[in-house]
Amino acid sequence: GEDVEQSLFLSVREGDSSVINCTYTDSSSTYLYWYKQEPGAGLQLLTYIFSNMDMKQDQRLTVLLNKKDKHLSLRIADTQTGDSAIYFCAERAGTALIFGKGTTLSVSS
Amino acid sequence: DTAVSQTPKYLVTQMGNDKSIKCEQNLGHDTMYWYKQDSKKFLKIMFSYNNKELIINETVPNRFSPKSPDKAHLNLHINSLELGDSAVYFCASSQGALGTVDGYTFGSGTRLTVV
After folding, report:
1. Which one of A19, B9, B40, B66 has the largest count of C-beta atoms within 10 Å of its C-beta?
2. Which residue stretches of chain B have pLDDT < 50?
């Protein structure tokens, strides 16, 4: 079945770049997503990338997709303390989104 | 206006009880979902309804029963609650046609604690 893997923790200093990595299994996924969950809140869609793209940039966020290796990454430039949250990678399988286990990003000042 | 609203936000109950969680969306979406997030923050899909029809029914105990009275509502009823049911339950909705770019809009979650 579909599976999405992420490393569980990432710790960075304020102002540094953060890179969160994800691997997925379903090569037919048309869209891949990044969601952010702040403490005690639901998930918010951060960005997405269509499977025929290699890269997508949206302000401080850069998404890179290596379809051959089924590898997705999210780079956050100039990471701020407000970026501390759990980041979930997700692939679309039919009408359902399959989520990775989430990467907890901790930003220290 | 809240797009996807769940009630209650917190639910503390004893083992063996039956409880319901309600979800409503005002986005006009045709697909709704229930996800369970455990204590390690892992998210797993439980159910999905499209226009009141069950389309995803993952392996969950049959003590969990979803009900969709109309496409704007998806409720989750849980019978004979067990300690292991303690989790945060998220409702979500999407305009769910295959291949569209839409992600999901999530509710803020219901934290269920079974004691």
Report:
1. B66
2. none
